[in-house]
Amino acid sequence: MMIQQPKPLTVKRDLPRPSDAQIAAFQAIPTGFVADALAGRGVLAPAIKPLLEGNLPFHAAGPAVTAHNSPGDLLATLAALNDVQKGDIVVATVCGHQGNAAAGDLVMAMLKNGGGAALVTDGPMRDLSGIVDVGLPVWCTGLSPASPSTSGPGTVGLPIQIGGQCVSSGDMIVADRDGVVVVPLGEIDTVLATLDTIRAAEAAYDAEIRAGRKVSRKALDVLSDGRTDFL
């Protein structure tokens, strides 16, 4: 028997956060560009997808506020709403639990009231019509009518594992139709500098394709420089 029961919540205060300029620089940037700038790192599992019903937005970029919930629970997500600043994205794990919803329209409405930009979770959502009415974007694993509990234990603000990635509060989250990418706080400036090169390369390649290119330069190089065995 435990002499003292653990508290249902652990909350980290004074969460780190990117600068306003860093946050602004990621707005409207495709996740593909961000993933390329990270050399393929930071991409959440493809099971975490945007809800696209009812013309919900499908692009968001903002600092993470993390919540770790026990499977089937919601308490940490609810507590994380207390720390949301304008433009933040709540990233809430339920340890991949699919037996009930990770959140619903009431959470989304409170997130919107607090100035939050989006929710990312590795569980399903519920109350789709209400979520559509709220109008904030959501990335999740689907839909479920089953309600979560609010018992804990859980954490807010501490690093979490979600979708195969580690996410810390203050990391930049960039999400769109293709999925979700996590940019570690300490790598933001490096990624932003690399994005300029990626944009230029992508624009040049697009121009070549519009002009009629049929085979990639990479493939043509391998075909012509002795690295191919022809049978």
From TrEMBL:
Keywords: Magnesium, Metal-binding. It holds the Pfam family RraA-like. Substrate binds at residues 104-107, 126. Its cofactor is Mg(2+); a divalent metal cation. Gene3D superfamilies: Ribonuclease E inhibitor RraA/RraA-like. The keyword Metal-binding applies. Mg(2+) binds at residue 127. One of its GO terms (molecular function) is metal ion binding. This is Putative 4-hydroxy-4-methyl-2-oxoglutarate aldolase.
